[in-house]
Amino acid sequence: MALRDIRAFDAWSAHGGSTDDEWRVVRDWTSGLATASYQAPSIPVPELSEQPTYEVREAIIPRSGGVYILYRCFYGESDVVDLIAVGSFFADDSP
What pLDDT was estimated at residue 72? Predict the structure, then answer.
């Protein structure tokens, strides 16, 4: 699979608020989707998926400080992964 759309990662990265180590962990985990779109601890989200065309998966990335990822895997002629959302699951953005 190829990572096609990583704008969600770029937006999360530009937002700041993560340490260099957390950023590297998220980058490396996300890069791994190109070879294993089903990697642990991701789980499918059946209500957002349309099998056999695509599957939506979600995970809280290990050792990331609570970074959540939601992504879509397209199957068939063009096996690609699009990131839908990347964010801090435990972040408190209230004023």
Answer: 96
